[in-house]
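Example record used in the benchmark description.
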Amino acid sequence: MSNLGLPERPLRVAVIGSGPSGFYAAEELLLGKVKAKVDMFDRLPAPFGLVRYGVAPDHPKIKNVIKVFEKTAVHPDFSFFGNVKVGQDISFADLRDFYDAVIFTCGAQTDNKLGIPGEDLAGSYTATEFVAWYNGHPDYRNRTFDLSCEVAVVVGQGNVAMDVSRILCKNPEELKTTDIAQHALEVLAKSKVKEVHLIGRRGPAQAAFTPPELKEFGELPDCDPLVNAADLNVNPESQEELDNPNNAPKKKNFEIMKEYSGRPASGKSKKFVIHFCKSPKELKGNGHIEELILEKNKLSGPAGKQKAEGTGILEEIPCGILFRSVGYRGVPIPGVPFEEKRGVFPNLGGRITEGGQVVLGLYAAGWIKRGPSGVIGTNKPDSAETVNNLLADIPSLKPCTKPDSQAVLALLKGKGVKVVSFDDWKKIDAAEIANGQKNGKLREKFVKVEEMLAVLK
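Model output (structure tokens):
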């Protein structure tokens, strides 16, 4: 390997984050033409990031991708450093000493705000915190959600918004065998929510959810999906979008909504109401949200680039709880360039840049690279692009001064950090599955880091 500008040893790469983009990047490196040693870091003892803490509990098949990641994790040149906070337990400068290259795959961890009056009233939440709470994420286990009201609003029309809506619309019986966190199941069992309103600023041709997620609402045993037939009378530009062969999923969505709009009332106890061309303007209430003020929109611009413009016509929805799901953004890491406007690490093809210049040895993949778009599989080609550019950079990389993973381990142990290896994780995993089986569930996740570490003592 000396002809590539590095000594006769494997290329050493640190991957920060153990979600899909991190594992896809690791796989690409380990199966590539260049001999590589990959150390993956995660601040939690449990790997798999978004798959573990983001995928809805009633969608277990999506989590089967973990089997692919496990094959990467047992590769002899792969190591998992769980329960390690980069920037706190190990500094960014230390990483540069131990690794030839660093790939950040730490996702988009926080939500965009609506930017409206009343947004901070009690009862107003982010979709992210609700999803993390019912999925048993340790950071969110103590959140409280008051579901004693009859009307809930979800702002946004992506699949995360659909997940939140569906969990609210399902009966606890439908969730009790999943890996949903027990604390969430107990709260949902007492929920008084009867109506869930999904709000989108543009029209039915632009909705970002996918057909399987939409179709599921038509199959719920105790909830009716409602679409106003008048909302499906779209403008010529939207019709052009629907007729575009590249927009087949949007057209399928439209067909499903058409079927919903013509359904007779069934008398089910819950309603899921989809609204189009409406934007939140204000949340009102006396200390706690009581109603949402919406402005009706009209669409303008050419097909494929239509924007929503307010009409000045207002309406209100009485509601007791609101979740916003209007896009996500990454959070900065000290020492790493950050693009505040988009909430990503600025990059060219995954090569992190500062002031337009590439910072050699620093890379990004996944949402922190491109912003919050796509599904789990979208991260595979995204990570491949980053890794291919990293490999092309090898002749220019500055070789690290301490090419030794054992030295990394010694540094962390010296600071009193309990590093969780992948073998350690498998013990935690087995304990969760055993705990779940006692209650007829797929697994019962540990919702405290201390509980996970206790399994290893």
